[in-house]
Every structure is written in structure tokens, then in C-alpha cells.
Amino acid sequence: MDTSMEIARDIASKSPTAVRKAKRALNTVETMGLKDGYRFEQNLTVEMTRHEDSKEAMRAFMEKRTPKFSDEIS
What we know:
Layout: H1 2-12, H2 16-29, H3 34-49, H4 52-62
Helix pairs in contact: 2-3
């Protein structure tokens, strides 16, 4: 139980938008061929790089602080 709570806390500390997109990618690509799945995942990655949470994560990393993510759906 301790390990599962640790994993849950780690996931909860991430960008809600990034977690949603990752879950969508995992649930979608399992039924696709390799090439189509890769393209689908790459499109979500590009979408995420344009999201404010991605910019916040980079700023926080450079400033050596914990990121403050929004919960806006893009």
C-alpha cells in the first residue's frame, strides 16, 4: 500500500493536463499499429509542448523549484 500511495502522490504532483494526455495516449495507442500509434503520441506531445504547464515545468526546473501547474484543458 505504501508503494501505491507513493506512486499516486507522484502522479498527482504532475500537470493534470499532461496526465490526461498520457492516459489518453496509453488507452488509444494499444489498439493501433506501431506507426499510427507513434504519430498519435507525437501529436499529443506537440500539443503538450504548447501548453502553459510545459513552460511552467521548464521554468521551475531552471529555477530549482516545484512547478505550479494550472488545470486548464487545452
